[in-house]
Design goal:
By secondary structure, the protein is an alpha/beta fold. It has helices at 12-26, 47-59, 61-67, 78-90, 103-117; strands at residues 2-5, 32-37, 68-74, 97-100.
Length: 118
């Protein structure tokens, strides 16, 4: 399981760096599950950042299909959940994806989902 903890502020350069780091993990593992913890984020991504994220995720879609078994987003903010729902609408994940308010719930779901997919 790969845990990505987002900083309080994310711009396009940080988003690209995060996707590049994720891509580097693909060469090391057959399948991974990803937990994106965005609880530290304040506010919500504006339309331009949602587009950047959507474009970045679409650009690695073939790799996501091959290497990501499940994707969980942890957020305590309804606004952030809505923003990430919009991102996933722009670039639907090629694997099971879900939202959680607690890390423990996300971990348990990722383990169950990954076990079922195996």
């Amino acid at each position: 399981m790969v845990v990505v903890t987002a900083p309080a502020h994310i711009d396009a350069a940080i988003a690209r760096e995060g996707v590049d780091r994720l891509r580097s993990l693909f060469s090391m593992h057959a399948k991974i599950s990803v937990m994106l913890d965005v609880r530290a984020r304040t506010g919500r991504p504006d339309a331009s950042m949602r587009k950047v994220w959507g474009d970045l995720l679409r650009s690695i879609e073939p790799e996501l299909k091959r290497h990501v078994a499940a994707w969980a987003v942890v957020t305590s903010s309804p606004l952030m959940r809505a923003a990430y729902t919009a991102i996933l609408w722009l670039a639907p994940p090629p694997c099971p994806a879900a939202f959680f308010t607690r890390v423990e719930e996300a971990e348990a779901w990722l383990r169950r989902t990954t076990r079922v997919a195996a």
